[in-house]
Write a structure and sequence with these properties.
The complex is a heterodimer of chains A (72) and B (570). Chain A is mainly alpha-helical and 72 residues long. Chain A has one helix spanning 43-67. Helices cover 35% and strands 0% of the residues of chain A. Chain B is built from 21 helices and no strands. The radius of gyration of chain B is 25 Å and the shape is globular. Classes of the chains: A mainly alpha (72), B mainly alpha (570).
């Protein structure tokens, strides 16, 4: 399937990127599929943030396991 | 339980049923009864999705796993966030746009009726079994607490759930899920906190972690790759992702939760909420189990946690077994005493309160591991004796560990709260499962093949009758739940036998425009046969069944589709 993604407008002057402008459908309304998430600006960015979050969690759990793998 | 605990439990049950009836009123149309008129906000769906997955088994079985097997089970959930991303990105928009009521309706739109029926029947069989297991878990609770027969409590639980799920439909189910999930959060926090408070005064949280670590209970991540090892990071990430894709993407009990969303955005956010919260929640529950283990290093646990079986063994009429039991119990108590001494010494040494200069013999982590092994060995002798008494029937008391701990050591009021959380967890899962089973049998079978021109009211009534039917079906299966070992694993194993093949059909539907209806159908049949053969003939971990099933369905499906197309061209 085709996944429509709207990328945030990256500011060229070094300021924080702004959320993407909503995409309008033929009838002038914001397309339901393009409604942005409440944080991270776009859906692909939010998904990437979740992957980073998961990697961080697993790393922390691994460090936890190592810290308490007591042999001596 | 004291009257205060009973009050907490009964108030929560009455509150949930009453709230469900209130929120579910006016669900007189198919859209309202089965899809909540697509009015649900993301947070309610998110909590409902979580509550549906977190059954009473999560409480009873997972804490027991943490106690007996450590924390490695958390890896099982590592693939879940990845699956949530894929479903949010690709599956949710497809389902929303197609306007379907069930996931299997979508399969007919894409392929044909026979593939829809095959997928629907696979769902009905395995989710029906899952509902039975979810119903059985609280029956275990009451049998331990009250000594009531498990079958009687199964019937009582089914009646309570049906009391709000039948009249209120999915609105009642979802809004009570929200309430129930909040109760579950409170119950988990209460259980964890109380387990820590009950540790001996000189044992800090750090000491408890140290002892649990020495005893191999904090093994949260295992990097080794072994197909026969049930839980490691690879089976969790790959097998767990496939299982989660199947469960959240193809199982009507979950698909129906996010189909009730106000918009695609709300449905996506409900899944993202689970991607963020699920893994830490499971970690926390398993850590509670590990803390219960540490607690029992200082207090003597019963040799057998199932007190009914324990009493049966103690009352054996066989004098030879009775004599052996007396010896085994003595050995068990002796090994517990030695383990407690080693544990206390290790804590003192860790905190530098005992040094070689003081003349004490230093204990080592290896001493505690040997003491643990001795306790386990003498307990195993007791289990063998019980098996002799029971004619060789397998014994597994994983699901009794946490409840035994709660009932014996928790303060008044806290017991009621934990019990309420367990009941809430059970009710949220069972109600959602019965609701989705009824939805699928009404929409995919009854409306599709038996009566296509009925009124809205007619289909709502059929859905209500179906809910009652599936309640009876689940209760019947629950009668045989006692012989299935750890419940949490049993549910996931049953799911893994069917989920991979089901996922394969949806992957063909979503990702391969060239896949044909016959390709999907034959692929599904071959995939299911392959998974069942794999489970019988190999020793690979059940999480890999999902990968095998999905891969075979996709491969066979594409092969048949290609063959069909080339035949047509010729």
């Amino acid at each position: 399937m085709r996944q429509k993604s709207s990328h945030g407008n990256k500011a060229r002057d070094g300021k924080m990127p702004t959320p993407p402008a909503p995409v309008h459908s033929a009838n002038g309304l914001v397309s339901e599929e393009d409604e942005p998430p409440p944080f991270c600006g776009t859906w692909p960015r939010l998904y990437a943030a979740i992957v980073v979050y998961l990697a961080t969690l697993i790393t922390l759990f691994y460090l936890f396991t190592r810290a308490y793998r007591i042999t001596e | 339980m004291s009257w205060i605990d009973w009050l907490v439990l009964l108030a929560s049950l009455v509150g949930i049923v009453g709230y469900g009836l209130y929120k579910g009123r006016g669900s007189n149309t198919v859209q309202g009864y089965l899809l909540a008129d697509k009015s649900m906000p993301w947070w309610a769906m998110g909590l409902s999705i979580m509550a549906t997955q977190a059954s009473a088994i999560t409480f009873i079985g997972t804490t027991g796993q943490g106690y007996s097997d450590g924390m490695r089970f958390v890896q099982f959930y590592f693939g879940l966030p990845l699956a949530m991303i894929l479903i949010a990105a690709f599956v949710v928009p497809m389902f929303h746009r197609s306007g379907v009521v069930t996931a299997y309706e979508f399969i007919e739109n894409r392929f044909d009726a026979k593939t829809r029926v095959a997928a629907c029947i696979i769902f009905l069989i395995q989710r029906g079994l899952g509902a039975g297991l979810a119903l059985y878990a609280p029956a275990v609770v009451l049998s331990v607490i009250m000594g009531w027969p498990e079958r009687f409590t199964v019937i009582i639980m089914a009646v309570i759930v049906l009391a709000y799920a039948v009249p209120g439909g999915i609105k009642a189910v979802t809004w009570t899920d929200v309430q129930q999930m909040i109760l579950i959060f409170l119950g988990v926090i209460a259980a964890f906190t109380t387990a820590l408070v009950l540790l001996p005064k000189n044992v800090s949280f750090g000491d408890a972690l140290y002892l649990a670590g020495v005893s191999g209970r904090l093994n949260a991540v295992d990097l080794s790759f072994d197909l026969n090892n049930r839980y490691n990071i690879w089976s969790g990430l790959i097998g767990g992702m496939f299982l989660a894709l199947s469960y959240f993407g193809c199982d009507q009990s979950q698909v129906q939760r996010y189909l009730t969303g106000k918009s695609i955005r709300h449905s996506r956010l409900s899944l993202i909420f689970n991607a963020i919260a699920k893994v830490p929640l499971q970690f926390f529950i398993l850590l509670t189990g590990a803390m219960v283990f540490t607690f029992y290093l200082f207090e003597a646990p019963p040799m057998l946690f199932n007190r009914v079986e324990s009493a049966r063994l103690a009352q054996t009429a066989d004098p030879a077994i009775a004599q052996q039991l007396s010896v085994v119990e003595q050995q068990y108590q002796q090994s517990l005493t030695e383990r407690r001494i080693v544990s206390e010494a290790l804590v003192l040494q860790k905190n530098a309160e005992v040094t070689p200069a003081m003349g004490s013999r230093l204990q080592t982590p290896e001493d505690l591991r040997s003491a643990n092994a001795a306790v386990l060995a003498s307990r195993q002798k007791g289990v063998e004796l019980l098996k002799q008494v029971n004619g060789g029937v397998a014994y597994d008391d994983t699901n009794y560990i946490f409840l035994t701990f709660v009932m014996k050591y928790f303060p008044i009021g806290m017991i009621g709260l934990v019990m309420a959380a367990i009941f809430a967890a059970a009710m949220s899962t069972i109600s959602a499962e019965l609701n989705s089973l009824a939805t699928s049998s009404t929409i995919d079978l009854y409306r599709r093949f038996l009566k296509r021109d009925g009124t809205d009211r007619h289909y709502v009534n059929v859905s209500k009758l179906s809910t009652v039917f599936w309640g009876i079906y689940a209760a019947t299966f629950a009668f045989f739940g006692g012989s299935l070992g750890s419940l949490i694993e049993a549910i996931n194993m049953v799911g893994s036998l069917f989920y991979g093949s089901l996922l394969g059909v949806f992957v063909l539907a979503f990702a391969f425009p060239r896949a044909t209806a016959n390709g999907a159908f034959i692929g599904l049949i071959v995939g299911e046969i392959t998974v069942l053969a794999t489970s019988k003939l190999s020793t690979i971990s059940f999480l890999w069944y999902n990968v095998v099933g999905c891969a075979v369905v996709v491969a066979v499906g594409l092969l048949i589709s290609r063959f069909e197309k080339s035949s047509r061209i010729e």
